[in-house]
Specification:
By secondary structure, the protein is an all-alpha fold. Helix content is 72%, strand content 0%. The chain has one domain: Four Helix Bundle (Hemerythrin (Met), subunit A). The radius of gyration is 14 Å and the shape is globular.
């Protein structure tokens, strides 16, 4: 369950970044598209996007096919990535769209 919540945090953070530049992802393949959009919204490094997509795939497998697939170390990595992404989006918003921010 932990990775599902971290994945949702990443998806919501990516959705906020995309909305800040005036777009939204279509419903079909939304999580994939939101993660990929980070390269264009806040210039996330390809290695980070690849890692986030890896966790997205694992989350889908653990949700729909097989429980217990995610290790404790992977869950900790996902927590760290989600926190870093949130910080990156907040920093980007303050620099590029300060009207959308309040003191967070």
């Amino acid at each position: 369950m932990a990775i599902k919540h971290r994945h949702n945090a990443v998806v919501q953070t990516a959705k906020a970044a995309l909305a800040a530049v005036g777009y939204r992802a279509r419903k079909e393949g939304q999580h994939y598209l939101l993660i990929q959009s980070l390269a264009f919204t806040i210039n996330t490094e390809p290695a980070i996007i690849k890692q986030l997509d890896k966790f997205r795939k694992k989350r889908n497998i653990s949700d729909y096919e097989r429980a217990g697939l995610v290790t404790e170390q992977e869950a900790e990595e996902m927590i760290a990535l989600a926190k870093q992404l949130r910080d990156d989006v907040e920093q980007w918003l303050r620099a590029h769209r300060p009207e959308l921010t309040t003191e967070i």
